[in-house]
Design goal:
Chain A contains two helices and eight strands; from the N terminus they run H-H-E-E-E-E-E-E-E-E. By secondary structure, chain A is of the alpha+beta class. The radius of gyration of chain A is 30 Å and the shape is elongated. Helix content of chain B is 11%, strand content 53%. Classes of the chains: A alpha+beta, B mainly beta. Chains A and B meet through strand 7 and strand 8 of A and strand 1, strand 2 and strand 3 of B.
């Protein structure tokens, strides 16, 4: 039995040429490099995902988007908690979304107890209630069921819309 | 025709705001701008809203049973389109469509109404002057005061001066009690020809 095994090993060793063996080495090295780079990429992605998730899963999280000058906040998203609900989609509790003009003045503030935030599409939507405050707070809007598209600055409220507009005080009454 | 137009505008002016050269007393002189010392609140209720934020304005389209309430006036319509200034400015325009109904109270607490298929309100401020106009359009646009009724397919109202022009198709009905009371008015007296 042992003899038979020795014979097989010898014949297999004899068949290997020097060229064949170097090619195999190169192939093995290539595979190792590929696997290594793949693991590196996965690691980087995972760490990025962990950072994003960690910031969102923490209580009282905050996420900001800046204008191109990178100093002025364009959009600020904050909330109590977020759970993943699909690729780049999160179920956010007690969301507060604020947008600002380039001069730093508030543009719109949206508050809702629960909604879905889609990072890829940059949309917020919910079937629940929401309240909106515009600029200086003279205009407030409440309703149920909404979609906010950040890219188009478009807001759709589906039900029970109530708007309150406080009139400006008489201009000549000011000192 | 000219006299008719004059009659029309004068009669309506009589009831809507001839007296009120000072706009603070007139309900129709600046109904949306809010001339009271204490700023009032306008509430808008509707089934749905579609709004776009652009150039520091919220362009909003309200649809479904739209109701607008103010202490001195109210509106009802199927659709309302408006532009809200985000900060520091007044409401400049309202476009009401589908079964428009407007109610306002005059300084004596009397009810004035307007109906039509469509109404366009505009408020333009040029220097120290505020021009407020309303255009009622429809198969039967109607403006009714306690003293008179005007019907036409288009009625142009100047809310600052309190005049309404029904154009060539205008039909006017002056209520009986209004004629009696109007004779005491120094500005318009239909029984005395100049």
């Amino acid at each position: 039995m042992n003899k038979a095994l020795d014979l097989k090993l010898k014949t297999s060793l004899k068949r290997r040429s020097p060229n064949h063996s170097s090619a195999r080495k190169l192939l093995a090295l290539g595979i190792c490099a590929l696997v290594g780079s793949f693991i590196l990429v996965i690691g980087l992605l995972a760490s990025a995902q962990t950072k994003l998730s960690a910031s969102l899963f923490s209580d009282d999280f905050r996420f900001s988007e800046y204008y191109t000058n990178k100093t002025q906040v364009r959009m600020r998203l904050s909330g109590k908690r977020a759970q993943p609900s699909g690729p780049e989609r999160y179920l956010v509790r007690e969301l507060r979304l604020e947008t600002f003009y380039e001069d730093g003045q508030p543009e719109i503030t949206i508050e809702t107890p629960e909604c879905f935030y889609d990072f890829a599409a940059r949309t917020v939507n919910s079937a629940g209630p929401l309240s909106i405050r515009m600029g200086d707070g003279r205009l407030t809007v409440t309703g149920e069921g909404f979609l906010w598209q950040q890219a188009q600055s478009l807001l759709i409220i589906s039900n029970r819309v109530n708007t309150k507009l406080r009139e400006l005080p008489k201009s000549n009454s000011k000192p | 025709m000219k006299r008719f137009l004059l009659l029309t505008s004068c009669t309506l002016a009589l009831t809507w705001s001839v007296r009120a050269q000072s706009p603070t007393n007139s309900p129709t002189a600046t109904p949306l701008a809010g001339t009271n010392a204490a700023p009032a609140e306008i509430t808008i209720d509707s089934e749905s809203l579609r709004g776009v934020l652009t150039n520091k304005m919220l362009v909003a389209v309200y649809t479904g049973n739209v109701r607008v309430n103010h202490p001195r006036w109210s509106l009802r319509a199927g659709i309302m389109t408006t532009s809200f200034p985000v900060a520091g400015k007044r409401l400049e325009s309202l476009v009401l469509e589908s079964n428009v109904f407007i109610v306002s109270l005059d300084e004596r607490g009397r009810t004035n109404t307007a109906r039509g298929d469509k109404a366009i309100y505009e408020c333009k401020i040029a220097g120290s002057m505020t021009n407020e106009t309303i255009v009622l359009i429809g198969q039967r646009a109607v403006v009714e005061t306690p003293d008179a009724i005007m019907e036409s397919d288009r009625i142009d109202g100047d809310l600052r001066n309190g005049t309404f022009d029904g154009g060539p198709k205008a039909r006017m009905r002056i209520k009986g009690e209004a004629l009696g009371s109007s004779t005491n008015n120094p500005i318009f007296n239909p029984l005395k020809r100049p």
